Amino acid sequence: MPEELQAALDASTALKAAFEALTPGRQRGYILHFSRAKQSSTRVSRIEKCTPDILAGKGLNGR
Asked: Tens digit of pLDDT per residue, the chain (63 long)?
């Protein structure tokens, strides 16, 4: 799990609960999406963009 994602989950209990409520496949999809970015700033940006979808219970491709 990327450090940036772990930091975001630790900072927001709502995000952590929503992420843990996702199916394992959806969790893995998000983790892979965030991990593929080479720069930390890109990972943070991706996490910020995907946060509303995670809170809504959607998968990465369920937009």
From this structure: 899 999 999 999 999 999 999 999 999 999 999 999 999 999 999 999 999 999 999 998 875
User: Tokens at residue 53, please?
Assistant: 């979808």
Cα distance between residue 13 and residue 33, in whole Å = 21
∠ CA 46-8-50 to the nearest 5 degrees? 30
Q: What is the pTM of this model?
A: 0.90
Token pair recorded at residue 36: 């593929």
48 is written with which tokens?
């910020």
Q: Which two tokens stand for residue 21?
A: 């409520």
Asked if residue 25 belongs to a domain, the reply is yes
Using DSSP, state whether 51 is helix, strand or coil: helix
What range does the domain containing 37 cover?
3-55
